[in-house]
Amino acid sequence: MTNSVDEIEFTDLILAIGTNTTENHPVISSKVKRAVRRHGAKLIVIDPRDIQLTKYADIWLRQRPGTDVAVINGLMNVIISEGLLARDYIEKRTEGIEALKEVVAKYTPEYVEGISGVPAEDLKTAARMYGAAKSAAILYAMGITQHTTGTDNVKSCANLAMLCGNMGIEGGGVNPLRGQNNVQGACDMGALPNVFPAYQQVANDEARAKFEKAWGVSLPAKPGLTITEVMDAAHKGDIKGLYVMGENPMLSDPDLTHVEEALKNLDILVVQDIFLTETAQIADVVLPSVCFAERDGTFSNTERRVQLIRKAVPPPGDARTDWEIISDLSTRIGYPMSYASASKIMDEINQVAPSYGGITYERIEKEGLQWPCPNVDHPGTRYLHKEKFTRGLGLFHAVEYIPPAELPDDEYPMILSTGRVLYHFHTGTMTRRAKGPSERYPESLVEINPLDTKKYGVEDGKLVRLTTRRGSIEARAKVTDRSPEGVIFVNFHFREVAVNLLTNPALDPIGKIPEYKVCAVKVEAA
Known about the structure:
By secondary structure, the chain is an alpha/beta fold.
């Protein structure tokens, strides 16, 4: 997040796009609700599904799945044509506005309605609301990123924020809501194929030399592969071994048949986890790890806040902390790692990751700090880009709308979209072992609009068969207006209904994220 969670409650306007906040981020959703109910904030929701947040919205734009770029371009078209843009801000702090104007000129409300289904007048109303707000926060989640145009979607959000001067101000910004508890921290620490800790580029000679000196090794200059690319390489035989930590690709990755074939094609598969996940069940070696309550360390949350966690209970059996397992394994294969404790690892982080330079265990004993925090005298950073952007001037990207990789046709006439429900988390590794969540949501359901049930002979509570070009599954139907006509929604928490057998592995060419949110599907009574 460029800004902070607390700022959401006190901003003038919130634009939530591609985020089912009440179910995926319920704590943050409480800030949104309080902003609306207690402080009079305006709320714009842009989402194909009738999520709970629409009940609090001043206006809801129900776009066709995969048309986010067109909708955002349409908002900017109105803002520019009606003179609602922040001219002084744009002149002093940005570049590339003319190229943006040239592209969005054709995205009139009427043109966008033809692409997205959003009524032209509603688009105008939303644009005027956003353009008139003194401060406006954009919230987004995987409904924006999990597309073949995910990078374009994010760039479009940044365009809209800069167009109205909402970057680098309190209560503004572009705020991705992370999908898991320490995704931010993992990325910060270099768990990405192209960067070292603190987003220092692998391909940058100076950055690489710095880490070679710190670690006493020679490091490759070529970035690695993303998760989906790893699976393709394993399937081809180019990757011989895989080490999986805290991830369950046998349920979470797209086109699971392809994933299983890839994993079984490896010479060795090692899984390090707290439970015997679907992936661990086919592993050659399983290394038992500990959960959050059985370790010391830090988590970095979605607002860049680094927080201390403390060991509350001893680990069961032979389970060990992740860093101890990795250190011992590294030592045995020839690179000694001899950290005495988790705090000693943070000492190293302070030295090699500039944004974490001042975040010590002593300083976060009682309250976390938000990076960047370059030294121990720095208070941390509540919001980014206050005076200037990292690159100097903020760059507008002229982005054209590109349709999803796979659209409905005569054989597969509907759109399948996937996501989460309130009572379960990710692949259900933890929540499906808990009695309460399992009682509240005991099985996977296929959300389908009443108008579609008549077309395909589907009945509420009865089994339906879903088929795409990659496979078939069966699950019970839930007839509801939450999903629009022509679109079905299925969660991915249940191994018995592994919806990722169906999803399209087509990737965003830049971010390499699969298109989980749109693929063509056939629906029939089972």
